[in-house]
Automatic annotation (TrEMBL):
InterPro entries, per the entry: F-box-like_dom_sf, F-box_dom, LRR_dom_sf
Annotated signal sequence range: none
Source species: Mycena albidolilacea
Protein name stated in the entry: F-box domain-containing protein
Taxonomy of the source species: Eukaryota, Fungi, Dikarya, Basidiomycota, Agaricomycotina
Occurrences of domain F-box (ranges): 38-92
């Protein structure tokens, strides 16, 4: 610092202000560079070095696997500090077999009694490299299995010796035997320890290649209560994808995320039990039902009307792969006026206009809307009704759309009042599987009638389609920002709207 003081005292008075400021900045940078090179970092207390290493691994690096390895390779002192810090090793990903599995078990031992975040993948997601995030939320259930059922059970037995310390458990399997082994061992080993730390549980069974989602029939399975029917005190996130549980004997309560997928009628909860689960989750923030929900009950005119379960904190709602009648029945089971993110997928094969009439004014605070493969009456009265549905969501800002009829884009304009905007706050669109010419024309029309888009994200396939026709990319770029979005990626605008 004495050198900097000399610069300020002796040099600054003899220079012009701009030149003096430049020299001062240069002197500071040179000093700091030399200081960092000679700084004796290993003289710091162990606790401070440990905190620094945690920042390096969890906050500063996109590849925590490599970061942890490199920290232990730097020097003997850092390796000793890292190995003694159990919180550096508690995020563990088991994939396949071989050296990476051996490494995962080494980290399992190093974590000791720290809360564990574990993921087990029974598929081949990029076997040659580690992902940017160890516990990625993007699951590819169509990949060929890389872990057999014979490998799964001994792995779980060893893993569940620390069941009481597991905080997050995500398991992806591809066969019935592995999935049932998970549920069986949880039901056997869970009650004695009480799973006190388990906050998030996901079990995904693949097998999509051999199942028809429209006529889903399972083998004769005897469902068991989830975790032996005990109360998981900390569980807030539950996702069951293509796996059975005994809904009547399972304790499902106090969830913030409830995600069920691919359940046949034979293994679905009754309507009364489903409503009981919703009522026992007053803090529920995300509800996802993809081809799974309560058993359909036809409401006769003589029966008592259903009083919807109020979900005041629900912000994200996903409904997919249902018939018209069932979807209307499902939406009658609950009320969620403050939904911010609404997803409607695979509502096709019939005219779903009656469903959209039911949803009109039901979700007035939606800002993110996803419409994948939806079908409705495209006659003038039907299009007018769909426009009223959009009008009931005046805050809509972000639209994801794919596999819809070209007429879908027409409902954003009023035939009798073209100058009155529909969804005036819509500024970001995420497009997939759309005719490029329709997208270009729709963007031009939005601009011409005073509701211009700010940004359009397109899939890689759609980007190729736009590039195949001369002038389409240039036309879009002249109206808004155009960006290519990789599969499964989340945009900054989406993250901002879901806060």
């Amino acid at each position: 610092m004495r050198q900097l003081e000399e610069v300020q005292r002796d040099i600054y008075p003899r220079m012009l202000p701009e030149e003096a400021q430049h020299q001062l900045v240069f002197a500071r940078q040179s000093y700091m560079l030399r200081y960092f090179r000679i700084f004796r970092v290993n003289d710091l207390p162990t606790e401070i070095i440990s905190n620094i290493l945690r920042f390096v691994i969890w906050d500063s690096m996109k590849r925590p696997v490599d970061a942890r390895l490199r920290v232990t390779w730097t020097c003997r002192a850092w390796r000793e500090i890292a190995l003694n810090d159990s919180t550096l090793w508690n995020a563990i990903w088991f994939r396949g077999s071989g050296p990476r599995t051996d490494r995962a078990w080494a980290w399992f031992d190093r974590a000791r009694q720290a809360p564990l975040d574990v993921r087990i993948d029974g598929d081949t997601q990029d076997e040659g490299a580690d992902d940017a995030s160890e516990l990625s939320s993007v699951l590819d259930l169509s990949a060929e299995p890389s872990m057999s059922a014979a490998d799964m059970r001994p792995m779980l037995l060893r893993l569940f010796t620390k069941l009481a310390t597991i905080r997050m458990l995500i398991i992806v399997v591809d066969d019935w035997k592995s999935a049932l082994s998970v549920l069986e061992l949880l039901g056997t080993l869970g009650p004695p320890c009480g799973v006190p730390m388990l906050q998030r549980f996901e079990l995904h069974r693949g097998g999509l290649r051999n199942e028809d989602r429209k006529t889903l029939v399972w083998p004769n399975l005897i469902s068991q209560p989830f975790i032996g029917g005990i109360v998981p005190p900390s569980l807030a996130y539950l996702s069951l994808n293509g796996v059975p549980i005994d809904w009547g004997r399972s304790v499902v309560q106090n969830l913030t995320t409830f995600d069920i997928r691919r359940l046949p009628v034979s293994h679905s909860p009754t309507s009364a039990r489903f409503r009981e689960i919703l009522a026992s989750c007053p803090r529920l923030q995300k509800l996802s039902m993809d081809g799974a929900g309560p058993i359909f009950e036809d409401q006769n005119t003589d029966s008592e009307p259903i009083i919807p379960v109020d979900l005041p904190h629900l912000r994200t709602l996903v409904v997919a792969d249902f018939s018209v009648e069932y979807a209307m029945f499902l939406f009658s089971q609950f009320s969620a006026p403050d939904v911010n993110d609404l997803t409607l997928m695979n509502l096709c094969g019939d005219d779903y206009l009656s469903l959209f009439l039911q949803l009109t004014s039901a979700f007035t605070k939606v800002r993110l809307l996803t419409c994948y493969s939806i079908q409705f009456d495209v006659s003038p009265p039907g299009l007018t009704s769909m426009t009223r549905w959009l009008d009931s969501m005046p805050l809509l800002t972000y639209l994801r759309v794919a596999n819809v009829a070209n007429q879908f884009f027409g409902i954003f304009f009023r035939p009798t009042d073209i100058k009155t905007p529909v969804c005036p706050h819509l500024v970001v669109v995420d497009c997939q599987s759309i005719e490029p010419s329709i997208l270009v024309q729709w963007t031009k029309d939005r601009h011409n009638y005073g509701t211009p888009l700010r940004k359009i994200y397109v899939s890689e396939e759609l980007a190729k389609g736009l590039a195949s026709e001369k002038g389409q990319i240039e036309a879009l770029r002249s109206l808004c920002v155009l960006a290519c979005l990789p599969r499964g990626a989340t945009t900054p605008e989406e993250e901002a709207l879901t806060l």
